[in-house]
Specification:
The complex is a heterodimer of chains A (324) and B (338). Chain A folds into 2 domains: 179 residues, Thiamin diphosphate (ThDP)-binding fold, Pyr/PP domains (Rossmann fold, 3-Layer(aba) Sandwich), CATH 3.40.50; 129 residues, Rossmann fold, CATH 3.40.50. The model of chain A has no long low-confidence stretch (mean pLDDT 97). Chain A is 37% helix and 20% strand. In chain A, α7 links the parallel β6 and β7. Chain A has 12 helices and 14 strands. Chain B is α/β, with parallel strands linked by helices and 338 residues long. Chain B has one domain: Rossmann fold (3-Layer(aba) Sandwich), CATH 3.40.50.970. In chain B, 42% of the residues lie in helices and 9% in strands. Chain B has 12 helices and 7 strands. In chain B, α6 links the parallel β2 and β3. In chain B, α1 runs antiparallel to α11 and α1 packs across α12. The chains are: A alpha/beta (324), B alpha/beta (338). Chains A and B meet through α3 and α11 of A and loops of B. The complex binds thiamine diphosphate. Thiamine diphosphate sits at the interface of chains B and A.
Chain lengths: 324, 338
């Protein structure tokens, strides 16, 4: 089996689902002949034709709304956002229409909204965001944040088959940087099941997306100091695998919550509340957060580096936990 | 037909168009050398639009340039080396490294920054125009955007808003035939942006966007109308993007013949010809402009490369207004009256 990059894995996942199911189609800006800004859909127009790889005008509200309508009629649209940052321009359709339709009147909306998120590529304040939290906070939406190539494929397939709207945030830094061999058989990674990216017994780092690699890098360094770090890759923020989070904390009794998103109102706060409520008696030390600080993502390299959580920040937090 | 233009205006227009072209060439070179990172956009072949219009602004007027309107920044007085420092992510750029490429503004120079979300600037530009109306100032806003932006709901809402309030604004669309890889024919089912805009209730004109004097003339009329309190005008400046969408894009999706055809309509070469034929400028005077532009661009790059990178200690400054006594090291210039 050849290895696939994270980007190729997503393409293959979508490709296979489109082969399996004629109801699945993709729409977005410049995805046809151009193959998308990151070339994720390269070759797809040639294979599936313009009926199923649909180039749209520059109008996110219009094509997101259209996808919602098509989904209600039983199609399975995948919407590509050229950059996840621009999801703000279709906020109303997602939050007021898609998220509430099933609850209000039983209209399920099986659609996937996907696109590149995250920083580390000098994209500046408008091409580096981690826009997950407004959607995590909107009941009715699922939020997927894959960190490995296999997961990216298995999760996009699960997202496409899911009966509800799924936001699928791909980390653009991982697109071409990571590679993995795919399982031979048709597989999906179910939504809402976390993964132990590294087993350990002393400290848990609970994280998602590209920060999984920062956690693993820190874990390697800490192993040399005799600290055995467990890394939990959440894979999905909604539905959340709370059992995996609590299980790891009950095992290690020390926890670092790590995310690339900014701190206040970030996902770590939600995790901390659940841990405090359900695993309080197991904690040997306060819950630690390692996150980006509360400011926009800056462009210039030294600023962006200071903004993004680094392995050294995780190492420092782990040492503090140990010393507590 | 020979157009008439004074030597003073002619040489200023030529200077700014050439400056924009040369500065973008140097910025592209810095990008290819890996010194500039991220997205880099050029207005190559579209220089007549921002130069021909922004040159008409009075000190109190405001420009809202798009990513293809570098001449507007220059005309409003943003220093070239500061622009290059911005592209390089250095501390002396107008965002002190917080943003890059054409994502920059300067209230001091009456330049309002656009954001990446296409068309989001248009409602904001209306607000600037509204402030002029509110304060009974006779100033005008020039608001620039591309053809693709006109598909967004925000753009349509803003057109209606501007019309209803009769705002003192000129909407300047650079119809460069493509939005990234999407040709206008896939963007809209009507032939022209003016067809889209004319339902909102203000005059819309198609202009040869590669003829700087035509842009100048049309903008002059639209600005006069706005100053008289008669409301907005839309100018659809027809042109062509003589580059990829951004520096990484080879634009293989654009038929070669189109590039060749539009290369013959180069706004700079065309204007030079007009100036020479009407004896407004001599060959020697044009060469002087070339030399001046080259030297100034060279100096801008040299000085910008000396600018330091921002100090990571500045990361959290100015997320909100600085309430501490000490002057923030990144205090940005304020517009008069604020
Ligand atoms: C709301 C939004 N969606 C998508 C993008 C990605 N994008 C950046 S520029 C661009 C094309 C813009 O075309 P146009 O408005 O015609 O301006 P031009 O670049 O041709 O000057 C696209 C799709 C964006 N910036 N904003």
């Amino acid at each position: 089996m050849p290895e696939l990059t994270y980007l190729e894995a997503i393409r293959e996942g979508i490709w296979e689902e489109m082969e399996r199911d004629d109801r699945v189609f993709m729409l977005g800006e410049d995805i046809g002949a151009y193959g998308g800004a990151f070339k994720l859909s390269a070759g797809m127009l040639e294979h599936f034709g313009p009926r199923r790889i649909v180039d749209t005008p520059l109008a996110e509200n219009a094509f997101l709304g259209a996808a919602i309508g098509a989904a209600m009629m039983g199609l399975r649209p995948i919407v590509e956002l050229q950059f996840a940052d621009f999801i703000t321009t279709a906020y109303d359709q997602i939050v007021n229409y898609a998220a509430k339709a099933r609850y209000r009147w039983g209209a399920g909306i099986p659609m996937v909204i996907r696109g590149p998120a995250g920083g580390g590529v000098h994209g500046g304040p408008f091409h580096s965001n981690n826009p997950e939290m407004p959607f995590v906070h909107t009941p009715g939406l699922k939020v997927v944040v894959p960190a490995s190539a296999c997961d990216a494929k298995g999760l996009i397939k699960a997202a496409i088959r899911d009966p509800d709207p799924v936001l699928f945030f791909e980390h653009k830094l991982l697109y071409r940087r990571i590679k993995e061999e795919m399982p031979r058989e048709d597989f999906v990674v179910p939504l809402g099941k976390a993964r132990i990216a590294r087993a350990g017994k002393d400290v848990s780092v609970i994280t998602y997306g590209a920060m999984v690699f920062v956690a693993l890098e820190a874990a390697e360094a800490l192993a040399r100091e005799g600290l055995d770090v467990e890394v939990i890759d959440l894979r999905c923020l909604v539905p959340l695998d709370e059992a995996a989070v609590l299980g790891s904390v009950r095992k290690t009794n020390r926890v670092i919550l790590l995310h690339e998103d900014t701190r206040s109102g970030g996902f770590a706060g939600e995790l901390a509340a659940r841990i405090a409520q359900h695993a309080f008696a197991y904690l040997e030390a306060p819950v630690m957060r390692v996150t980006a600080p509360d400011c926009p993502v800056p462009f210039s390299a030294p600023l962006e580096e200071a903004f993004l959580p680094q392995a050294k920040d995780v190492i420092e937090a782990a040492r503090q936990l140990k010393a507590y | 037909m020979m157009q008439t233009v004074s030597g003073e205006l002619g040489s200023r227009l030529l200077y700014y168009m050439k400056f924009m072209r040369e500065l973008e060439h140097r910025i592209e070179k810095l990008y290819r050398q890996g010194k500039i990172v991220g997205g880099v956009f050029f207005g190559r072949g579209q220089e007549a639009i921002s130069a021909g219009s922004a040159i008409l602004t009075e000190p109190g007027d405001v420009v809202c340039p798009s990513h293809r309107d570098l001449a507007a920044f220059l005309i409003r007085g943003m220093e070239p080396w500061v622009i290059v420092a911005h592209y390089l992510g250095r501390r002396d750029g107008p965002t002190r490294g917080r943003d890059g490429n054409t994502h920059m503004g300067s209230l001091k120079h009456h330049i309002i920054s656009y954001i990446s979300s296409m068309a989001a600037i248009v409602p904001v530009a209306n607000g600037v125009a509204f402030s002029f109306q509110y304060r009974k100032q006779s100033n005008v806003v020039l608001c620039y955007f591309g053809d693709g932006a006109t598909s967004r709901g925000e753009w349509h809402e803003a057109m209606n808003f501007g019309a209803v309030f009769k705002l003192p604004i000129v909407y300047i669309c650079n119809n460069n035939q493509y939005a990234y890889s999407t040709p206008v024919s896939r963007q809209m089912a009507v032939a022209h942006i003016t067809d889209r805009a004319s339902g909102y209730g203000f005059p819309c004109h198609r202009v040869d966007g590669n003829d700087v004097l035509a842009v100048h003339e049309a903008t002059k009329e639209a600005m006069a109308r706005a100053r008289r309190g008669e409301g907005p005008t839309l100018l659809e400046c027809e042109t062509f993007r003589m580059s990829g969408h951004s520096a990484h894009d080879g634009a293989e999706y654009v038929p070669k013949e189109l590039f060749e055809q539009w290369a013959r309509k180069c706004p700079i070469a065309r204007f030079e010809k007009v100036l020479l034929e009407a004896s407004v400028l001599s060959r020697a005077e044009i060469e002087q402009i070339d030399q001046r532009v080259e030297a100034e661009v060279e100096e801008a790059v040299r000085r910008a490369e000396l600018s330091p990178y921002p100090d990571p200690a500045e990361l959290l400054l100015n997320v909100f207004a600085d309430t501490s006594e000490k002057q923030s090291p990144i205090a940005l210039p304020k517009a008069e009256g604020n």
